[in-house]
Amino acid sequence: MEVRFYIDPETDEPHIYEHGIMEDEVLQVLRGPGEDLPARQNSRMKVGRTAQGRYLQVVYVMDDDGQGMFVITASELHGNAKKAFRRRQRRKPK
Q1: Is 85 inside any structural domain?
Q2: Parent domain of 66
Q3: What CATH number has the domain bearing residue 39?
Q4: Residues whose CB falls within 8 Å of the CB of residue 19, separated by 6 or more in sequence, listed in order
Q5: What's the pTM value of the predicted model, to 2 decimals?
Q6: What is the residue-level pLDDT of the chain in tens, covering all 94 positions?
Q7: H or E segment at 89?
């Protein structure tokens, strides 16, 4: 699946860099286990953990043909949001 990233017009770099996140971390979250939730305006939010142990939320939009996705932004989970996600993951039936 093709994954494209929003490029910030001011820096000509992926917007996720502003949040201290790299492309490979986003791909790990998108491909790994976690929660995939509806977000605003037909977008989705995937919450998961990277191989290095960081908890991220990734906001993306699927392409109309379902063959790719466009990553809008990503940020690290902190505080109560991180605690709630971890709690939900522990409660999931295996």
Answers
A1: no
A2: 2-78
A3: 3.30.2310
A4: 73, 74, 75, 76
A5: 0.90
A6: 899 999 999 999 999 999 999 999 999 999 999 999 999 888 999 999 999 999 999 999 999 888 899 999 999 999 999 999 999 888 877 6
A7: helix 79-91
